[in-house]
Amino acid sequence: MADLQDDLHTAAEIGRVDEPYPQEAVVVAPETYEPVSDPDAEPLTRARAVLAAHPVADGCSGLPWALRRLPWYDLDLGESGLDTDVPRLREGRVGAVFWSLRLPEGAEGDRAVGAALDQLDLAKGVVAAHDGGLRPARTAGDVSDARNCGRVAVLFGPAGAAALGDSLSVLRALHALGLRVLTLAGASWAGAGGLTRFGEEVVREMNRLGVIADLSYASTPVIRRVLTVSKAPVLFSRSAARDLRPHPANLPDELLADVGRAKGLCMVPLAAEQSGTTVRDVADHLDRVRAVAGPECVGLSGTYDTGGAHPQELGDTSCYPTLIAELLRRGWDEAEVALLTWGNVQRVLRAAGFAAHVAQQRRPPSTATIADLDRP
Question: Closest Cα to residue 364, out of 213, 234, 227, 204?
């Protein structure tokens, strides 16, 4: 036990930013942006021009789970029973997408681990079967390579915290299989009371691996503690502004300000329940997050194929130009739109990779267990 304690950070070390990621390596400076559209063109034409250069990185898609109910599908040809297929991804100028690895309701322990593996296996198989339009990605470089090859980059995650089965070994195995985002909500070590000691060690091991923490639906104590403990930026895969629309996953202004200070990323969902029923409602949330957290801390989350309703004019993945046109009408400049759609996600991916490189030089894989750290 003494050896285990020596391997863990002391309380004084937790959250110490002694080796922060260099801002110049991970932030796209707005002043370096060169306009790509005619400022006198109508907004939809300008939106398509901007998205051609800076496509959408979509923070959450439920496609793998939705495909389970279909006896046959071909995403290259198109699927009317889904919100997503390759032709509509291209029409919507989507360059990257995070595929949510959904777990069955109430799954925990071995059942949750098995369900996560099933979802990963399905997702990887779908990408491999549609390699003319999709390409798996793990890093910011992979995402850029996919875009340069005319493919949509697919990143695996978020997956629920239950997928770990309370084991850091399982976390490492899932990472090796491609998991890149983990939602820190619903586990015994990340609940209403905040992170336990084991939960803090999960975050540190995620940093060491380069797995990004997703804090949508997490409790306020968990959010605040992760923002302190994590050496890499966090993201909220589907969170809008709570002051505009009350919802458990939406963030109040005080937390949005915290996210801005931590250089995290709040990805506003195109979901009627969270953001409203019109494209203008979604734009209102984007305006609010940009104003409170900053233009470098706001992103987009389609939440397509997750089973929920979408705002008018944003019914599927082809509709992103309509939303961007609305933002341009409201006075967003092209540099801010470029950060919203592409630059901010790339920054977070690069920062997570840099933090992992630093952490791997400083500590070996953690041998901590929940029994050792959270024993009464």
Answer: 204
Measured CA to CA, the distance from residue 313 to residue 307 in angstroms comes to 17
Q: Which region holds residue 178: left if phi is over 0, alpha if psi is between -120 and 50, else beta?
A: left
Tokens coding 141: 């470089």
Contact 249, 271 (CB under 8 A): no
Residue position matching structure tokens 């009317």: 80
- The beta strands (E) that lie in the chain are given as 56-61, 94-101, 134-136, 152-160, 181-183, 190-191, 194-195, 212-214, 235-236, 265-269, 298-301
Rounded to a whole number of angstroms, the CA Rg of the chain reads 20
Do residues 183 and 103 touch, judged by C-beta distance below 8 A?
no
Provide the pLDDT for residue 253. Answer: 98
Query: What CATH number belongs to 36-373?
Result: 3.20.20.140
Closest CA to 158 of 65, 19, 43: 65
More confident residue, 71 or 154: 154
User: What is the pTM assigned to this prediction?
Assistant: 0.89
Residue pLDDT, tens place only, 133-173: 999 999 999 999 999 999 999 999 999 999 999 999 999 99
Rounded-to-integer distance, Cα 75 and Cα 173, Å: 29
* Element housing 149 (H / E): none
| Proportion of the chain in helix, strand, coil states, percent, rounded to 5 | 45, 15, 40
Distance CA 28, CA 34 (A): 12
> Read out DSSP for 183-221?
E--SBTTEETTEE-HHHHHHHHHHHHHTPEEE-TT--HH
Q: Which positions ≥6 away from 61 have C-beta within 8 Å?
A: 84, 97, 98, 99, 100, 302, 303, 304, 305, 306
Q: Which of 366, 272, 266 is nearest to 314 (CA)?
A: 272
Q: Where are the domains of the chain?
A: 36-373
Q: Residues 304, 342: contact at Cβ < 8 Å?
A: no
49: helix, strand or coil: helix
Neighbours of 179 (CB within 10 A): 26
